[in-house]
């Protein structure tokens, strides 16, 4: 019987340099996809999957993230006085339960592996999820969003789980890539991992897409702080070491992931979520047709 996945780590200390000047004073995680910050979409996914404790690994100038997940008394009081009940209820629905959020500082940009390691004392000795805050997902095939599918795979296989998606072979050098072993229905054994392989050397076109279930032994490995690609402490390198003693399985996510860390992915996410919103979709479609018609 597997241990329930109760905690999730969100590494949100990145500088967002690909979105300057927009991210000069606004964290990239707080840029909005339609009417919700990117990070709120990711937290929603974790909550839907059953996560109870949300751990944010932050950096300097990220205080607005903590404020976003806290009570906004003046705003809430104003909404009630103006009888804006729908807006008030929406704010309250997004609030985590008291004590359900934790914030810790990374303090130095040393890589994703280092960011995850910074959450070690809050996670403790239990398996946990990691969600990259740039990656926003949409349900596919009624199986839930990506983390829900990862947790289902964890309940089936145990061990460690990595969400994957397929990209064109010529794009694999931009990502962490896994090697495929025994196949199951929607999952497979992972027999190897490599971070940003040189062109023409990738073991597959299945990339690591930003959702993980990891056992706490990963912290002991990341403790050593060995630097990999880009001179950073890579989570992929830590997982490769852990894979020598523990099983890893991959999940083929059946939905769609949008990389909101890139301008194209961010714009695509806004279009996709706008089209999925019944309140604005009809007018948005009309505007899109007008805009595209002028090209």
- Helical/strand content category: alpha/beta
Q: Percent range for helical residues?
A: 25-40%
Order of helices and strands: EEEHEHHHEHHEEHEEEEHHEEHH
Oligomer: single chain
Overall outline: globular
Distance between the termini: 57 Å
Query: How large a portion of the residues is in β-strands, by DSSP E?
Result: 15-25%
C-alpha Rg (nearest Å): 20 Å
**On the 0-100 scale, what is the average pLDDT?**
91
**Annotation field: number of helices:** 11
What strand order characterises the main sheet? Answer: 5-4-1-6-11-8-12-10-9
**Strand tally:** 13
Largest sheet: 9 strands, mixed
Low-pLDDT segments, ≥5 res: none
What is the strand and helix layout of this fold?
Elements: E1 7-11, E2 32-33, E3 36-37, H1 38-48, E4 53-58, H2 63-68, H3 73-81, H4 85-94, E5 101-105, H5 112-117, H6 120-123, E6 128-131, E7 135-138, H7 146-157, E8 160-166, E9 176-183, E10 187-195, E11 206-214, H8 217-222, H9 235-242, E12 248-252, E13 256-259, H10 263-275, H11 281-293
Parallel strand pairs: 1-4, 1-6, 4-5, 8-12
Antiparallel strand pairs: 2-3, 6-11, 7-13, 8-11, 9-10, 10-12
Summarize the structure.
The protein is an alpha/beta fold. It contains 11 helices and 13 strands.
Please give a structural write-up:
33% of the residues lie in helices and 24% in strands. The strands form three sheets. The chain has a nine-stranded mixed sheet with strand order 5-4-1-6-11-8-12-10-9. Strands 2-3 form a two-stranded antiparallel ribbon. The N and C termini lie far apart (57 Å). By secondary structure, the protein is of the alpha/beta class. Strand 9 and strand 10 form a beta hairpin.
């Amino acid at each position: 019987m597997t241990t329930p996945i109760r905690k999730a780590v969100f590494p949100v200390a990145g500088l967002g340099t690909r979105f300057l000047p927009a991210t000069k004073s606004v964290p990239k995680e707080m840029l909005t996809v339609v009417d919700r910050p990117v990070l709120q979409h990711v937290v929603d996914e974790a909550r839907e999957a059953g996560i109870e404790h949300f751990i944010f690994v932050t950096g300097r100038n990220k205080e607005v993230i903590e404020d976003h997940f806290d009570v906004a008394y003046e705003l809430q009081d104003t909404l009630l006085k103006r009888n804006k009940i729908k807006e008030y209820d929406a704010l309250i629905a997004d609030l985590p339960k008291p004590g359900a959020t934790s914030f810790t500082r990374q303090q130095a940009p040393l890589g994703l592996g280092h960011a995850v390691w910074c959450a070690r004392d809050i996670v403790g000795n239990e398996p946990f999820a990691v969600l990259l805050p740039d990656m926003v997902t949409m349900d596919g095939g009624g199986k839930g969003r990506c983390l829900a599918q990862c947790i289902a795979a964890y309940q089936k296989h145990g061990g460690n789980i990595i969400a994957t998606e397929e990209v064109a072979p010529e794009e694999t050098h931009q990502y962490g890539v896994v090697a495929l072993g025994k196949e199951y229905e929607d999952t497979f054994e992972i027999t190897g991992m490599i971070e940003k392989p040189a062109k023409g050397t990738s073991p597959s076109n299945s990339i690591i897409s930003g959702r993980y279930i990891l056992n706490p032994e990963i912290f002991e490995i990341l403790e050593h702080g060995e630097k990999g690609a880009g001179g950073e402490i890579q989570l992929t390198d830590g997982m490769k070491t852990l894979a020598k003693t523990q099983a890893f399985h991959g999940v083929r996510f059946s939905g769609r992931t949008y990389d909101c860390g890139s301008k194209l992915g961010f714009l695509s996410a806004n279009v996709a979520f706008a089209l999925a919103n019944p309140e604005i979709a009809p007018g948005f479609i009309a505007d899109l047709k007008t805009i595209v018609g002028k090209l």
